[in-house]
Design a protein that fits this description.
The chain has helices spanning 9-18, 23-38, 80-89, 109-113, 121-127, 129-135, 157-165, 397-405, 410-426, 432-447; strands at 2-4, 64-66, 93-98, 101-106, 117-120, 168-174, 184-189, 195-204, 209-217, 221-235, 240-247, 251-263, 268-275, 280-289, 295-304, 309-318, 324-333, 338-347, 355-364, 370-379, 385-394. It has one domain. By secondary structure, the chain is an alpha/beta fold. The strands form three sheets. Strands 4-3-7-9-11-13-15-17-19-21 form a ten-stranded mixed beta sheet, covered by helices on one side. Strands 5-6-8-10-12-14-16-18-20 form a nine-stranded mixed beta sheet. It starts with a strand and ends with a helix. Residues 24-184 form the SUF system FeS cluster assembly SufBD N-terminal domain.
Length: 448
């Protein structure tokens, strides 16, 4: 894998040339670069970043990793951590990236015959050029400022960097009327010590149905590393997608994720974001209800320990009428770690008969842990049902004492209480293998 340093316009040109991209994509990259170059990085003076300081993140000190065009590997040659996850995950098909290189892919013949595509973005540029041109950057780009929480230009700085310099990505296309309920998965194994930038594009045709799980994996500890990811989900009328973004990166990683879904008429998205790893992570997750009758469920799980810092922002943007959205983000923090949640329900004047709910709950396992929660509403319609709320509380000492008095070690008692706290999110995950994986991570983090 080749490494290139120094962020510059010339680097954008080098990346696009190396990847043999069409002219229209190069033009998009250069426009994104111009946006990145003129904008400041967000600071704690920026309202949406007031609890998260990125001044120490080495965005411009790390080399960007480029694919070298290595041949595909056998399944036995995949990183051990990825092999272990594949064995546990109960997937219909999957693809594996090591750094910016797609090294392995499996897709059942039955899905291939029906027109389902699971491949790299750059392969899709050659095999599905019109679909790519129509959908890439449609949902997440370098000027995607929606709602009062997105008006400040600093919020486009990192999405612009991703758009200018992404080196790899995934394209999932599900044709009109095609349905499958066993998940397809993508594993991104990052070795650390460099800048990584990738994208995901999910397109669901009318009345299709799919399940897609994306996981970020790395060694337990790495040198300072930055990962910029962007996920675009574009659903036509009646399409239904269940999506999960699971991040268990090692200590030393700074992980920044921007995700936005465009939901057409009667489309439905069930989304799950899990942030358990990285030294610092921020996930900006948005659903836009553009079609009448659309539905968005946004679930979040996080657990921090040591000096970890995790920041979530959610946006439920209701444009059309008779749409439904529900956010439920729950987490726990121990040691000296910190969690941040900010969310906005924004209703446009035409979003009558909206049902929208937003809930954030936090559990603190030590006196030095901290959680900040800022739920918000911005209502432009008058015939709606909306509510929001949050809570933060320490572990109930009486409950923990009771469990310990029955002979349970303290960490086992804490495991039980954390699982009970997160149970209403966990039970809304119908993917049994994924739910078991998350529960296992929680158990290990409580022991630390």
């Amino acid at each position: 894998m080749e490494l290139t340093s120094t962020l510059s316009r010339d680097l954008v040109l080098e990346v696009s040339k190396k990847l043999l991209e069409p002219q229209w994509l190069l033009e998009q990259r250069l426009a994104a670069w111009e946006t990145f170059a003129k904008l400041p990085y967000p600071t704690t003076r920026t309202e949406e970043w007031k609890y998260t300081d990125v001044t120490e993140v080495p965005f411009e000190e790390l080399a960007l990793e480029l694919p070298a065009g290595a041949p595909l590997r056998s399944r036995e040659e995949l990183p051990e951590a990825v092999q272990a996850r594949i064995a546990q995950a109960d997937l219909a098909g999957f693809a594996v990236f090591v750094g910016p290189e797609m090294v392995y892919a499996e897709l059942p013949e039955e899905l291939t015959r029906q027109g389902v595509v699971l491949t790299s973005l750059h392969q899709a540029l050659r095999s599905h050029p019109e679909q790519m041109r129509a959908a890439l950057f449609k949902a997440v780009n370098w000027s995607d400022l929606v709602g009062t929480q997105q008006h400040r230009p600093e919020n486009s700085k990192l999405p612009a960097l991703n758009a200018a310099l992404f080196t790899h990505g995934v394209f999932l296309y599900v044709p009109r009327g095609v349905e499958f309920s066993k998940p397809l998965g993508v594993f991104k194994y990052l070795e650390g010590g460099r800048l990584s930038a990738g994208r995901t594009l999910v397109v669901g045709g009318a009345n299709s149905q799919a399940v897609y799980v994306e996981e970020y994996v790395s060694p337990a500890r790495v040198p300072a590393s930055v990962n910029l990811s962007a996920t675009e989900i574009v659903l036509d009328s009646g399409a239904k997608v269940r999506h999960a973004h699971v991040q268990t990166l090692g200590e030393g990683f700074y992980h920044f994720h921007r995700q936005r879904a465009h939901l057409g008429r009667d489309a439905a998205l069930n989304d799950l974001v899990v942030n358990m790893g990285a030294t610092l992570s921020r996930a900006d997750v948005q659903s836009q209800m553009l079609g009448a009758g659309s539905y968005s469920e946004m679930l979040g799980l996080y657990f921090t320990a040591g000096n970890q810092h995790v920041d979530h922002y959610t946006l439920q943007h209701h444009v059309a009428d008779h749409a439904y959205s529900d956010v439920l983000y729950k987490g726990a923090a121990k040691d000296r770690s910190r969690t941040v949640y900010a969310g906005l329900i924004k209703l446009e004047p035409g979003a009558q008969k909206t049902d929208a709910y937003q809930t954030n709950r936090n559990l603190l396992l030590s006196p030095d842990a901290r959680a900040d929660s800022v739920p918000q509403l911005e209502i432009g319609a008058n015939d709606v049902k909306c509510s929001h709320g949050s809570s933060t509380a320490p572990v109930d000492a009486t409950q923990l004492f009771y469990l310990m008095s029955r002979g349970l070690p303290k960490h086992v008692g804490q495991q039980i209480l954390v699982k009970a706290h997160l149970a209403d999110v966990l039970r809304r995950i119908p993917l049994e293998a994924l739910r078991a994986h998350i529960e296992g991570i929680i158990e290990e983090k409580v022991k630390l």
